[in-house]
Design brief:
Blueprint lengths: L2 H13 L2 H8 L3 H15 L4 E4 L2 E4 L1 H26 L7 E6 L5 H14 L4 E6 L2 H9 L5 E5 L7 E16 L3 H6 L9 E4 L5 H12 L6 E4 L3 H9 L4 E5 H9 L4 E18 L6 H14 L2
Parallel strand pairs: 3-4, 3-5, 7-8, 7-9
Antiparallel strand pairs: 1-2, 5-10, 6-9, 6-10
Helix pairs in contact: 1-2, 1-3, 1-4, 2-3, 5-11
Length: about 290
């Protein structure tokens, strides 16, 4: 069975859109359509039906998809094995890190990976959740951490823990903020991370739930600077609880509005196609050991 046709089929099935699948595959839309038609002709079944929302799998397509995914997993595993035959092969492990992950967990994870394979070249890349997700989809990473629910069909996830977030304001403004919650929160600038962060969507849901219309928004992707800005009286923000606690314990002039404590799920995500990848399995096992799963 043609590998390229299977790859095209799974991409369209996962994304549900021919144009977006073509972009991911670096092909033209007609080329993607032609490969799907060729596969359907070979199998003598219809795999997709067109709808106003895009491409949907038929019952036959739903049954065929997991089998196609397994074949792609084995193909990737064989490709990984072939690379180990090179004379000067060095194993590379690429993992995506986001700022909310506790640093002691990453230290422990690094130790476990290197204990299992002392010769591995470990590359820990930093980014926002959306950036890490995209790098995994583009096969630039074996896996990575992700904040929030995982909705992409191409990805698998391991739930690690709920991360707690605190709403903080300048210490001098605490009394004013508490006088008319939650309406008072709309009178301040909100310092938040950009749209590719896992917390941005959650923040917008928080605003809708409490009918808050921020006076102004300031985008900042560095968590420590967010806390610094709150200390300076620039606005309010939602930050990881452990960072808020650390700031207060060190005497920074912030106040925590405990009534609006929030939680977000932390996941380890990876590409479905990489399920049989030996390096990914090393990372998964190490992550599960660190989080006690």
């Amino acid at each position: 069975m043609d590998y390229n046709q299977l790859k095209t089929f799974t991409e369209v099935a996962h994304i549900g859109n021919l144009t977006q699948a073509a972009e991911r595959l670096h092909l033209s839309q007609p080329a993607v359509s032609a490969q799907i038609k060729s596969l359907e002709k070979r199998l003598n079944v219809t795999l997709f039906k067109r709808t106003t929302n895009g491409m949907e799998l038929t019952p036959a397509g739903e049954v065929f998809l997991p089998e196609a995914e397994i074949l792609l997993q084995h193909h990737h595993k064989l490709d990984c094995f072939a690379k180990t035959l090179a004379e000067h092969y060095v194993a590379h492990a690429d993992i995506g890190l986001i700022h909310p992950v506790p640093s002691d967990k990453i230290t422990c994870l690094t130790e476990k990976v290197l204990r299992h394979d002392p010769d591995i070249l470990l590359h820990i890349q930093y980014g926002m959740s959306g950036e890490i997700e995209q790098r995994i989809l583009d096969k630039q990473l074996h896996g990575g951490f992700f904040l929030g629910p995982v909705n992409h069909r191409s990805l698998r996830s391991i739930f690690l823990q709920d991360l707690h977030y605190s709403l903080i304001c300048p210490a001098e403004a605490e009394q004013t903020v508490r006088q008319d919650l939650p309406a008072s929160l709309g009178q301040y600038a909100w310092i938040e991370m950009s749209g590719v962060s896992g917390s941005r969507k959650h923040m917008q849901q928080f605003w809708r739930k409490h009918k808050i219309s921020p006076k102004r928004q300031i985008i900042c992707d560095y968590s420590q600077t967010i806390i610094d800005l709150v200390c300076q009286g620039t606005g309010v923000a939602v930050v990881p609880e452990h960072r808020a606690r650390s700031a207060k314990e060190s005497g920074r002039p912030i106040a925590v509005i405990e009534e609006y404590r929030q939680t977000m799920p932390l996941n380890f995500i990876y590409l479905n196609e990489f399920e049989e990848d030996p390096i990914l399995n090393l990372l998964k096992n190490s992550v599960e050991e660190v989080w006690g799963i």
